[in-house]
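pinned: reference chain
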Amino acid sequence: MPKDYYEVLGVGRDADAAAIKRAYRKLALANHPDRNPGDKAAEERFKEATQAYEVLSDEEKRKRYDRFGHAGVDPNMGGGFSGGFGGPGFDLHDALRRFMEDFGGGGLGDIFGGGGGGQRGGPRVQAGSDLQLKLALTLEEISTGVTKKLKIRRLDPCKECGGSGSRAGAEPKVCATCQGQGQVRQVQRSVFGQFVNVGPCPTCRGEGRVVSDPCPNCQGEGRRKGESTLSVKIPAGVSTGNYIPLAGQGNVGPRGGPRGDLIIFVQEREHDKFERHGEHLLLDLPISFSQAALGDQVEVPTLDTPVRLKIPAGIQSGKVLRVRGKGMPRIDDYGRGDLLVRIAVWTPQQLSAEERKLFEALARCKGAQPPSAGKGFFDKVRHAFRG
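pinned: its structure tokens
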């Protein structure tokens, strides 16, 4: 079972961004591979802390983690509701790169303003941007879960150059400014000591290579607009406002950069019979005067097969009857909600002569009259509409 990311960094769940960054920096410096050469345990602690920081320092990832736990951010879950799916594992290289993004430099010497420390920065590959897609679903689809085939437009690797950005037969050249490192280092000295600033190379934009003979098909970008069809599994019980991130299914980055993510936002279609209230469904059921007075057995629809429902004699409009287990599935638990059937006594708008006589006779019966409109009467009405 993976450790809780807040426990890994030693912060509370209400910690702000600054506190999270301070806690991570302290742990990362203590367990950095440059400070602990050959120490596998320290390396694991460094990766663990960096992975926790990677999630908790990102507002969207932190929201997903707070809501769904590790399942909301695990790139290796593949096809469930909540994770970023299908991405590569988080290794030491990823951890070092993430550490340097926020704290700069290659080795610890850069961080402390001294010399030494191995150069671990290297060329930086620019990732592609994320894509967002709205997906409308019916209550029937949400009730059972469904696999959807989605046609998306995105940036794909250029077929002419294979994503390199260079004309066929040509190769990108090593950047003369940074000598292929993707970084430039500036050293400043003052009375307080030496300060080292490391940043992306302005000539190659941190890639370490320069396309001198660009591909005519993509103008050196290494990518072109394309159209793809993807299958995505939608779990039962989702609702409007839920989203499903698919890692590595967004736009491809320039010149061989990895893909961004595809984020699918769920939208629930309005149903002609049912009104959804979380895990419960509400159905308005019109019945006649005689059914209300005498009681009845009626068939009511559900999202799958109809069920028989007993209407007790003397039921009032607004009364809610409950059919257990015929609502929506709970996405974070087993079982289903209920179907709530709200009774509405239907008044006929046109009467035949015979029907009119029957109602007139009924009106003369004392038992057919409503109670006086006193306090007790209105209490009963309020109770009826509360169900």
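why pinned: Residues 40-56 form the longest helix (17 residues). Confidence is low (pLDDT under 50) at residues 76-88, 105-120.
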